[in-house]
Specification:
This protein is α+β, with helices and mostly antiparallel strands and about 375 residues long. It is built from nine helices and eleven strands. It has three domains: about 90 residues; about 120 residues, Butyryl-CoA Dehydrogenase, subunit A, domain 2 (Beta Barrel), CATH 2.40.110; about 140 residues, Butyryl-CoA Dehydrogenase, subunit A, domain 3 (Up-down Bundle).
Amino acid sequence: MHPFTALFLAAWLITLGLRLYLGWRHVRHVRAHRAEVPAPFAGAIALESHQKAADYTVAKTRLAMVVAVVDAFVLLALTLGGGLNVADRAPAALFDPGIARGVALIALVAAALSIVELPFGLYRTFRIEQRFGFNKMTLKLFVLDAAIAHVLLVAARTGPGNGESGITLLLVPRDTPGVTVTPLPTIDPTRRVYEVVFDDVTVPPERVIGTEGKGWKHLARLVDVACVAIAAESQGGAERALQMAVEYVKVREQFGRPVGSFQAVKHMAAECTSEIEPSRSLLWYAAWALQGNPRDASRAAAMAKARLGDVYSRTTNTAVQMHGGIGFTWEHDIHFWFKRAKCNEVAFGSPSWHRERVATLSGW
């Protein structure tokens, strides 16, 4: 048994002991005071009601104690039977001291900023001729922060099939022989993306995350979280871009008056506001659904990502126009927001792909 599994089991058993002890004391206390009724409520009817409430409390506490014991036996059976020895089956890389302390970075090698449609071009990308051995040169584009990552989380097809089947998640240290990381020039200079090449790289079986060929469900969860995060960044970026544009049109004068006083400019700002404000509620729901409503989390994340991708791009485009000629130059910072918006629009799936995903998840 792995030490982590043994530690978890010991903590669980200690917790069970405390629950049983507290439950036993509570039952004793209730039964000892079963016949006592507070003076203001004295009477036969009050005594009978009090006794029934006490009996109900005792029964409920005993039931909770029985359930706790059953849970403990199930957990013990799963653990001794190997069904819950997650730590025993987890890759050794997950227990690397750097990752455990949170100082080691992991980069997702699934072309997170792929210009093509999801799922990130990972299908048919890897050809496996030996067990998890990349003996053919393989290319991954638009990998975020690959140069500073200590470990690469690779989504690879290791078995036959299309779509979600046959996808395996592998942990590959960045310094593994045959792994080459090269920076890529993109429209957004503030976000670092890289090309990752695997040339005759062999990955041992112990570096498989989860079950072989069953990695898509873990990758899908990561995509949902990433979509919500990108949507949140897009929401804030759109608000800031509009704020910058409004501040500029208040001080930029033409024909002896601020350009923000012209009706056409007011309409541009109002249209942006009418798109930004409703999107906030959609984003909040998507973020809450990740924990509060897991069944709807994927659909909510896709809706937020699709909506905010469009809103951010349209808002920054309008903000550039509201700045006039200076907005089209590098002398003003608005171009950074415009480029980040275009990058966010296609990151982790374009708006059109996510709308199709929403339709599929909704059963349309």
